[in-house]
Amino acid sequence: xHRDYIKEHRPILFNDLILSGHLWVYLVDWxxxxxxxxxxxxxxxxxxxxxxxxxxxTHQMEWVQRCNNIHNRAEEIILHEMIYS
Length: 85
What we know:
mainly alpha
């Protein structure tokens, strides 16, 4: 997604990365940073909202629903903070 974004909105950066042969290294690094940020945000949201292992043990479906909700919100944050910037 970030590749498409820089290709469309930052063509000079995109061309520089392609010509230097660093596009894939750049994108892999960007992906790793995004994944680490996603994991951090999710853990913080789980702690803030009380999504614990105890909830997982006692109310599995609620735990799954809340985790999915947190994951979706965290992905939106990552998209706005990192991918489309």
